[in-house]
Amino acid sequence: MSTESDLPGGNDFHDVTQIFLDAASEMPPGEIIFREGFTLHDAMSAFEIGEPRLDSGMVLAEQQRPPFDPWAPLLPEEICWIIDRSFSLEMLFHAGNPLAHTVFTSLYSVAILDLHPDLAPYGEDPESHLITIVLRASISGMLKCCDLSWRELSQGHMYDTEDWQSDKCETSLLEGMSVQNALLGLDNATGWLIRTRQVPEPWLTALVARLNLRKSLLQLMDTNVFRSPSNFMQLIGVARNHLKTVQSYPSPEPPASSIAHFAFDPYVARKLNSSVPIRVIPVPQMSSTWSALELLLDGWDEMRLLSSTNALASWETAGLLRAWSPNPPLRVPYIRSATQSVFYNGLLVLNKFGPQWIFDRFFYETLGVSQQAVLTFLEEHSTSQWLAWGDLQRGHFKLMTEYIRALWFNPGRRRRFLMKLLVELHAYYAKMLDIQSSMPGLSVTEIMSHLSSCVLLWRLSVIRDVVLSGFQLELYTAEERSFAYWYLSEVIEAHLECLDRLLLAVNPDSTPARELRFQHSFLTALQAMALPMFMLSMSLMSFDWQQMNANFHRRYKWAFSPDYGLVSAPVVAQPDFDHFMAKCKAALKSPETYSPVESFTLAHTILKQLVEERMVGGYAGLWTEDRIKLLQGLVDASEDLANDLRTAQIPSFDEGLLKWDPYNTPSPWFPVVDDEGKERRRNRRPRSAAN
Length: 691
Description:
By secondary structure, the chain is an all-alpha fold. The protein has helices at residues 17-25, 40-49, 76-94, 107-110, 126-153, 179-196, 203-222, 229-248, 286-307, 312-324, 333-343, 355-367, 371-381, 389-406, 411-437, 451-472, 481-505, 511-536, 545-555, 577-589, 596-612, 624-644, 675-683, 687-690, and strands at 658-659, 672-673.
């Protein structure tokens, strides 16, 4: 990096306006001079929208910094602090922030190629070894971790600028260095610290723990979970132990006079070929950094468990629980991308299964029969020859792999994918209806009479998730919530009818039957909570039919795609605004027939029984505790609503009491009664007294 002494003219500045005027006079009309990486389009955009990058070169007085000297001697505790702060910047990058505003603000990461021992200006001075051996190894390991993360994220499972930022600003992430060389540097640094004992305790232990933590993280990113699952599990345990040691030896922030503070420049983007405006991101407290690192390790651990899980229903359960539960929060993009790669690498599922296995698991996990049994039955009983069975199999493989991977999208992208998937699932359902119609005379207790119900069950689950995601993403306006809850109850009603049919046919002692019974109880409780919320939310509606109808078609446009017209089969569980308005009218005419408290109490009874008896279905598996946690949240939500709304009256209910907050309530789908609102209502004088 250049210093002030390198600037032409030193610090004695002169007015150069005339120089630019003379240069411009020699340029022909229409000629423009651009710096590298800045095009005519960028220039026009800057004038059009006030591009902040135009101001990136202006350095304010409070932003003035002395020249960065990468060889300035540092104390061991300052090295620890720099390494810890680098961990914080790395976690900020994993959270979706640009490298230019996170990792590259560590000036050692930008100057890493110059930190070679042969270039040390102080020769073999022991103090320089802390930089050339210890700090260089740690920063190299961090950059190599970022490089491996970048490679995983660039595969396309996550969306650039939406989930993560791919711009490297033409700055090295040590792409040319092998992982083994980076690990060797970390081992050499650890060996030098232990062998020479030039660093006193407790900083010797603190530095070794930080180097070992970095080594284990780099090894985790470089290890294929399928090739060595036991080694992968061991590395996670080793990383957790090193993290605990690091937390036991915290590094104090250096005094304001310490040169360690000059190792970070939040405005370094002005010196890089960056395409984004400069944004200073506050560095979190170290406690938050270590918590983020623990969540990263938890994500790796869950990915390891999923890699050994062959049940598609368990994969679906894990994905839904991560989407539904705010705790733990959404995994970082790197973990979500790596999880998708574990499930499907573009050729095989779970690194060993093909389309036939996916198709077979679908029938087995829903009906308890194999695909071969279905095919044999069709050959014996169908009145038509199904030559397109292979096409059906390939289509199912595509739908299933895309669906499972979509469960690890970000919430907004996941919702959009599910809405598009509904059309394809309806076409798939219609094909199954055609197959079923070719086998007349089957009774409801015959498994093969429910082939279409398998797909319908899947489609209704997707509709339910689309509706529920609207509450988690806070998409619904106050006027839209009543319809959302009513439509949810209608979808669940169709879902329950489908489950009833399947339960008549499957073996009651089978794993699919246990899962179906759990889903039946869970959905019954969910419906018992949705119906009273539909009625209580009616007071939020304006009953302006024209405006409400327009909002309805805007919100549920995914249900009226023209592609549905290409399929002859009727669409199940379509949203119906006229039917909804009729239900609202009936509820307002006879409010005494509805009891919100009884509905919430029924839901509470069902959910509490599921929790106490640990009835979590047949495919929860390793995610049993997570499913119980979800159920417990609904238990608390139903109990709170039943207690707080015991005296609620449908026509005159005060809608201001309800507070929707998907992150700070027992369940992200249901509100709580605002304590402040209750207090305001108690203190409010009666209208007659006010008059």
